[in-house]
Amino acid sequence: MRDSDEITEQIVDTALRLHTGLGPGWLLCVVAVFTFLANAVAEDPAADLSASPGLRVEQPTDSRVLPILTVERSDAGKAYLAWGGKPLLAYGPGDEMRLLSGGADVVRWARWQSANGMNLVRGHPASVPIDAYGSPGLHPFNRKGDKWNVDDWNGTYFDNMSDAIGILEDHGIFLHLQLWQIVWFKEAPNRWAINYLNPANNVNEWTRGYAQGRHYLTAPAGSPGHAHRKQWVRRILNAVKGHRNVWIDVINELGGVPGTDLDWAREVVSWIREWEKDNDGRLLVGVDSESVYHSGAFKPYKNDYDVIMFNELRNRTLAIKAIDAFEMPAVSVRSSDGTNQWRDYMFANADQVGPSHQSRYRRLCYRSIFAGLQAIGAYWKPEVAQADYLDMRDWPASARALRAFWGRIGPHWPELAVDDTMVSGAVAPHAYGLKSDRLYCVYLECGSHTHDNAYPASTVRIKCPFELERLHAEVFNPRTGESTTTRTSRIGTALDVSLPAFTDDSVVLIWRERKAG
Known about the structure:
- By secondary structure, the protein is of the alpha/beta class.
- The chain has helices at residues 4-18, 24-43, 106-115, 155-170, 213-217, 224-240, 262-279, 295-298, 316-326, 355-369, 395-409, and strands at residues 69-73, 79-83, 86-87, 90-93, 120-123, 141-144, 147-153, 174-178, 246-249, 284-286, 288-289, 308-310, 330-332, 373-378, 417-418, 423-424, 430-435, 439-445, 454-455, 458-463, 472-476, 483-485, 488-491, 494-499, 502-503, 505-511.
- A 6-stranded antiparallel sheet has the order 15-17-18-26-21-22, covered by helices on one side. It has a 5-stranded parallel sheet with strand order 4-14-13-12-11, with helices on one face. Strands 5-8-9-10 form a 4-stranded parallel sheet, covered by helices on one side.
- Strand 21 and strand 22 form a beta hairpin.
- Helix 1 packs antiparallel against helix 2, helix 4 (155-170) runs parallel beside helix 6 and helix 6 crosses helix 7.
- It is elongated, with a radius of gyration of 24 Å.
- The two termini are 21 Å apart.
- 43% of the residues are buried.
């Protein structure tokens, strides 16, 4: 947990940036009030300080001050996500539809994430009334009698979405924004059956031709459904306008409904690019899939996108190859730790938030970083009443440690390349490597679907050319964020590094000179 001095330092910096000519007395008052709030958060990050749901620390609107989310490229050609010019790492659970639809306390969630080093939410506007999932909220359309009028757009819904994005932005949290969640267009109870666009649920005559969700999603150009989808996209983008903490995902699980393929997605991207021209903006765009990111499928569409979006890190080797082949930064959407079976999920219901699942998510985060990903999404599907800090009591320490880890390697990210071959003799069953001409990193872990694996003190061999007299080796604890110096010895072209005993996972950092970070 961050102490009050650290939080106060950040708030003072914010106050200084907000200060635009007011007298010093006003500035001191602002700092004093925010310092009081910092102390409260430091003492108890679960404290609900949001008596007013609209409470938010306003950021300056001057585009010269706000950081910008961009794709940068290193001298070696590596593409990476940057925030204000610095390499970005984003991770954390997100409440999907409820945070954007008025069904959850956005301020409370954002404060919890921010206080514990997290900075990522996956979200999408709801295509169904979220009341069906236990959380009364807002609706993108207005009612006519006991049904919906899907041509009568509810501006309040999209205004609320913009406000929610702004609250996340104020707390330094990024939004992986999906234009559609494909499951709402599949045949199942509480899905297409309750979708606003299902003709059984609305008064609009033109929807009568869309008996199934796929008919609406794939309605051809010139049809009412096609025009409606385009307007849906533009209204979402209007809510995003002015915010700099969003990347756009065309749809969740591309291909999950017949007809939603890369050609279909390309047309949606063309609408986004059209909106950008009309609004003098530029958005980072990708599409969520696990199957299309190979040369045979994705190569013709590469120039349509800015970011590779893996549905999950199902196959680390394939992810590494895709990042290398398409030369884009990469993110993942959710925290399924395996093959997208129910047993692989983490945080999908109240039974999947315990210590073992939180340990698995921690390891998924490191495993993803060591595959080249810069954002690691996580489910959050329990009821809002459960989506608090008590259910996740074991995760924040690991989340803060992960932020500390990125603080060490983040500045080197543009130069770091994946190389698992440099590791041998690891006591754990899995070992991954990153290297640059200044830093070698090795991650050791127990793997998926396992927990509380104790490993004895050991030695790991790492191929590393650094001179023994000019290197600094340390062991980083992913659970605590603590580092300890360790011994090394030269064995030909490799180093033998001493490892203390650890549980589940450990990281080795070797610096070319005795200067970390």
